[in-house]
Design goal:
Number of helices: 4
Radius of gyration: 28 Å
Order of helices and strands: HHHH
Number of domains: 2
Number of strands: 0
Shape: flat
Strand content: under 5%
Oligomer: single chain
Structural class: mainly alpha
């Protein structure tokens, strides 16, 4: 790319560089502002979740086990999404691999088996 006419071989136009840096600085400031707002919103949500756990504890529900259940449910939802994103033949291969690995009773595989049964029943009814 050719240099602008007012640029010498060993230098750049100072005004152009300052203008570019000023734009970058403004975007960086905007980014920090957005990040701060986002972090504040996330902090409020985390505080709300913490409050729910405190309420659960006050009502006699053990929070450690409740947190574990929430993690399991979140992971199960991710696993179902991963499974659903696969093609049908890939789902079958994955099920065979899981069976070979000894993974027979995870909720994901139960859900997949139920889904396959529902599809089979639906196919025979139609």
């Amino acid at each position: 790319m050719a240099k602008p006419a007012n640029t010498t071989i060993n230098s750049f136009d100072a005004e152009l560089v300052q203008s570019i840096l000023a734009k970058i600085d403004r975007y960086e400031a905007d980014l920090l502002s957005e990040r701060g707002e986002s972090m504040a919103a996330c902090r409020n949500i985390r505080d709300s979740i913490r409050g729910v756990y405190e309420d659960a504890k006050a009502q006699g529900i053990p929070t450690k086990e409740l947190r574990a259940l929430c993690k399991i449910r979140k992971n199960e939802a991710k696993n179902k999404q991963i499974y659903a994103e696969l093609e049908r033949d890939q789902q079958e291969v994955l099920s065979m691999l899981a069976t070979a690995e000894g993974v027979k009773d995870l909720p994901l595989w139960r859900a997949a088996a139920m889904h396959a049964m529902e599809e089979a029943i639906g196919a025979t009814v139609q």
